[in-house]
Amino acid sequence: MSWHLREATAADCAQIQELIARSIRALGAGDYSPDQIEGALKGAFGLDSQLISDGTYFVVESDGRLIGCGGWSYRRTLFGGDARSGRDAGTLDPSTDAAKIRAFFVDPAAARQGIGSAVLERCESEARRHGFRRAEMMATLPGMRLYEARGYVPGERVEYPVAAGVAIEFVPMWKSLTA
Hints:
Elements: E1 4-7, H1 13-27, H2 34-40, H3 49-54, E2 57-62, E3 65-73, E4 99-106, H4 115-129, E5 134-139, H5 141-149, E6 153-154, E7 158-163, E8 166-176
Parallel strand pairs: 4-5
Antiparallel strand pairs: 1-2, 2-3, 3-4, 5-8, 6-8, 7-8
């Protein structure tokens, strides 16, 4: 399968939303219940259009179809799509703050083919170019395996409420970008 990594545009938004849902419903099924996944798709998972506006979100395309996405941010919001409350668009100081790695999803049919790693490398490179020395994220359980393989250190799992009586586990992770 041949694919191309590029900066996301506003025209990609609908395909990105579909990719996120397709990805987490299939690849997250071993770690999360259907109720957790559907609840998280209402805000914890989803497109953050600020990343597209900032030029820090990327997509992977194959034959005109999006098969991967992910980004980084110089803003304070750690995770979540446009529907999530409590977002903070304030900017980070690269000399003291960590860049945020955000919203990585891969099409189930394209999983484990280097797509997530390629997007992550691009994000880390861009964050370094902007002066960041560290990166951090709130990883999904299925995503944690990729990030650990790429040198990220996990913290203690946290629970985030996604619906009445339903919470989902995330893992805070971080990495030095200077090594």
